[in-house]
Design goal:
Length: 78
């Protein structure tokens, strides 16, 4: 499964901590690019620093997935 996500972009909601963070990490480890999303700006900034080595595989988006307009903006940026 090492390259299962090769050439794919995956949006992982709530990926600044917990299960979402681990899922995002596994996708990167398996060749994918990840859009890290979360509501908490501080957690996003911490993760940016923690995952600097994966900079080319990541995009960060602060927002709330329960707000349709923010989802539309996230998709546009992706």
């Amino acid at each position: 499964m090492k390259n299962y996500y090769l050439d794919k972009v995956v949006i992982v909601t709530g990926s600044t901590m917990g299960i979402g963070k681990e899922i995002a990490f596994q996708i990167i480890q398996n060749g994918g690019k990840v859009v890290v999303t979360g509501r908490n700006k501080e957690r996003i900034e911490l993760l940016k620093k923690e995952w600097q080595v994966f900079d080319n595989e990541l995009m960060f988006f602060q927002g709330d997935v329960t707000i349709p307009e923010q989802n539309e903006e996230m998709i546009k940026q992706t």
